[in-house]
Fold this sequence. Notes:
Blueprint: H1 3-19, E1 38-42, E2 51-54, E3 56-61, E4 76-79, E5 81-82, E6 86-87, E7 89-95, E8 101-110, E9 119-126, E10 129-136, E11 149-156, E12 161-168, E13 179-188, H2 200-226
Antiparallel strand pairs: 1-3, 2-7, 3-4, 4-13, 5-6, 7-12, 8-11, 8-13, 9-10, 9-12
Helix pairs in contact: 1-2
Amino acid sequence: xxxxxxxxxxxxxxxxxxxxxxxxxxxxxxxxxxxxxxxxxxxxxxxxxxxxxxxxxxxxxxxxxxxxxxxxxxxxxxxxxxxxxxxxxxxxxxxxxxxxxxxxxxxxxxxxxxxxxxxxxxxxxxxxxxxxxxxxxxxxxxxxxxxxxxxxxxxxxxxxxxxxxxxxxxxxxxxxxxxxxxxxxxxxxxxxxxxxxxxxxxxxxxxxxxxxxxxxxxxxxxxxxxx
Length: 227
């Protein structure tokens, strides 16, 4: 393997890495909400890796009406029913390995300012998996906050790209006070994050390995020719 081939291989690998679509921004920290307030995002808006595909959602800063909106992880969380009175849905597409098994984990809470006592649900879908998950608002008292609950499930990827979506199904309270979502994680069975790009040092080691293999092969050919 000559130097030109090694260089071409390295460039190809790096190009593939640049096009990779890893799962990202599961805690909604890559975008800013006003301090101690919230920002509404309508259908078509981008949320740092996520897309609002229907209705509207609110990105809420953890200091807003503290302690009722303290995030599960980081500072921000998402109210899946936007303040404009629209049931919201968000989605994100990311790289997967067809046939690979992945685990989705996420945390739920609820905006209880409509006084509703009962379940506020989210419909979660990915790669043929579809299920509603709920939060019992009796766990959360206004002005006292409430515990975040963690949910998880496995799915088998159907192709090289999968789309994970969360859709509010709560239509009470003027469609304003929905389930809260935070700390979404997706991991492969080996513990890796789907689509994660190797560090530069890892690429260097891989390319260096190819170079070493090529050098060894040349020495063997030279030895055979001499014999």
